[in-house]
Amino acid sequence: EVQLVESGGGLIQPGRSLRLSCAASGFTVSSNYMSWVRQAPGKGLEWVSVIYTAGSTYYADSVKGRFTISRDNSKNTLYLQMNSLRAEDTAVYYCARGRPNYGDYNYWGQGTLVTVSS
Amino acid sequence: ENVLTQSPGTLSLSPGDRATLSCRTSQSVSSNDLAWYQQKPGQAPRVLIYGTSSRATGIPDRFSGSGSGTDFTLTISRLEPEDFAVYYCQQYSSPPRYTFGQGTKLEIK
Prior knowledge:
The complex is a heterodimer of chains A (118) and B (109). Chain A has 118 residues and is mainly β. Chain A is 0% helix and 52% strand.
């Protein structure tokens, strides 16, 4: 059974850093493209970042230069390093697995809440 | 950037009704790269339709997707009580960008 479990969220002050983790089971992270998608309170879904099987990474303009997506193949885990956090980064962060040959996400974690506030 | 505009913002219908949700993109989208999701309060999104018209595993056949180019539609043929939720369309484009529409809230009339 495919499972994605996020962790690492919490309350953090503006300007600080936080690393989110997404532990995967039932499949191999490095064999799939993986993304982070976030949702601010009461708002819609916003794509954040993607890492492809070959290791290439891409980011939304809103986080480029501040966030870094990575994976640890030995731990079968996806990460999101978030630096220089801003109040507008406050959101539930979901990790999601992409469907091969299509542009959608067929598996999602339950999400982890990041609150950026002083 | 490909902007996705969903309409209506809110749709008020009754169980048993037919629901038609629209997603218009500012740039043409490949048929493989348009999907629809359902999200209920406190839950992660769930993919309903991928590749414009393919139902995801376990999705009832009352859900169907259609469209091409810049105009796409999600149709729910006969609404069940559990279908009242928020629906998002989503597309992939190059350079890699995965964009979501702003959502349509389907509420009980």
